[in-house]
Fold:
Amino acid sequence: MTDTEPETIYYTADVVLVTDDGQIALVERRWDPFKGRHALPGGHVDRKERNRAAASRELFEEAGVQVDPADLVRLDVFDEPDRDPRGRYVTIVYLARVPAGTVLTAGDDALTATWWPLTSLPPLAFDHAEILEAVADKIV
Structure:
């Protein structure tokens, strides 16, 4: 492949889910890449699905939290060519706020879903630490 040939691009959605007392939801990945590492809830956009709807669906599937797609606030787009070892991935990241005490339930792609203090996060999969750094002023 040359630099001018089109490449396959995968389209994803991720959610920064935070509580009013400064906790962030992270899921522990069930599969490679980064099996066992923590990540923001998110995943692939299905065929004929809008990105915002995918973010809401993935949040529910991975962390058990239902947020109406209309209530998700778009934060940014992340498209660094090497952000995912599986290929070229472009993600739109959304913010959702929920009350402290909201229960998380790990779903299909997650081993666990846990609240973490924004000030003390574990090592994160993919570029999720960089995403959180880039949007930090919008989530506090």
